[in-house]
Amino acid sequence: MTKRKNRSLEIIADDIHGLARTNIFDIGELLIEAKDQCEHGQWLEWLDNEFDYAASTAERYMNAARLRVKFPTVRNLKLAASTVYKLADCADADYLPSVIRELAKHAADKRLTHPDADRVIKIGIGRHRHGDHPDATLAKLVKLDEFNEESWHPQAVADLLERDPETDEIAESIVDKIEQAHEDTERAQWEAEQARREAKWEAERKAEDEAESTLDGPMPELPPATTPPEPQKFDSATQWAGADEFSDAVETLSELSTKPAKRFVGKVDTDTLRGVIDFLMAVMGAEAEEKRAKPKETITLETAPDTSTSLNWSTTVDGKVHLTTTPAAEFKITGTGSNFTLSRKRPGECWSPDHMMGCFDTLDAAKAAVEQHGKPKETSTTPTTTVKTVPLTSTELDRRKAGAA
């Protein structure tokens, strides 16, 4: 073999890479042609029999050939084989045309090493994303992709685009300052949080020490007991603001209730109607609670007492009807809640509304009325009973509760 003289290592490397590129594209085209002729399942067997490389290697050759078809200028660029493979792997990327144009500026006359080609590829990607900026700015912007989850990343991108550094050193210093400032802020926040926790722990420790010293020492003097003022009571007689408007509104609704409901469909939204219904139900509940809370008028039966016969009450299954029978009359109490009706009839008669004798707020009050007055005298075929309404005082209420018990 003839030895060539005066050839530098750089020139020799250029020749080697040129042959490699040519071989990549040519071999890839031949492999594509062979694969198209193989039957189903024959491709891998043929590849294994004819060549000493894996199917993935053949696929990289074919991708390089397809890249040359899509971008013919790639064949003339002075790139390393590894760079060609890298471009072929992203042949469908939207930024690839920008990358090829950028490589053509730097690799048409001068061979790019793999690191230099990587930088030019970043410049092409950055120009596709951000437009016309200095190469150093675009390369650094793309390099920051690996830090896109860091809190300082958005500020670093904004500062680079604003300041447009023209050297890698300036671009690097801009990012370093921003990263350091964020680290200092996070460290200060962490130290402040630690100080807050330590202060809290110290306060809790002091409180525990004071509590222990209090338990070990003499009993502290307690302030004299004071009687709290009786809270102001309000009832239905209180003149509340809006009470007149409420009464007018209810009267209006009462008048409108005689009209067909369809007339008012869609006039008010459903949520507002539900709110009004809930409000009216709350007013009814408050009124019932007020009636239960204060003494009311009750019915007193004025009859001739007759306690010669004891009264034994029985309760029906539903718990709402209470009966007792004497030789001369039967008494029945019907009701629930705060409304009980007392009725009386003679044996053999059927119960009817005419037998009602009075209404009571509680079951015990109705029973007490029968227990107190006993059987009315039978002066005729029709029982004679006089009913009158009297106010129930607090003393009378306590006495009746004691009698019911």
Helix-strand pattern: HHHHHHHHHHHEEEEEEHEH
Task: Please give the radius of gyration in angstroms.
Answer: 51 Å
The geometry reads as: elongated
How many helices? The count is 13
In percent, how much strand structure appears in the residues? 5-15%
Helix content: 40-55%
**Sheet with the most strands, sense and barrel status:** 5 strands, antiparallel
Alpha-beta classification: alpha+beta
Mean pLDDT across the residues is 77
- Low-pLDDT stretches are 295-309, 375-391
Concise description?
This protein has 405 residues and is of the alpha+beta class. Among the domains are: 9-132, no CATH class; 152-210, no CATH class; 298-307 and 334-343 and 356-375 and 385-405, no CATH class. Helices cover 54% and strands 9% of the residues.
Description:
This protein is of the alpha+beta class and 405 residues long. Among the domains are: 9-132, no CATH class; 152-210, no CATH class; 298-307 and 334-343 and 356-375 and 385-405, no CATH class. Helices cover 54% and strands 9% of the residues. The protein contains 13 helices and seven strands. Strands 2-3-4-5-6 form a five-stranded antiparallel β-sheet, with helices on one face. The protein has a two-stranded antiparallel ribbon with strand order 1-7. Helix 1 crosses helix 3 (55-70), helix 3 (55-70) packs across helix 4 and helix 5 (96-107) crosses helix 6 (114-130). The longest helix has 49 residues, at 168-216. The chain starts with 8 loop residues before the first helix and ends with a helix.
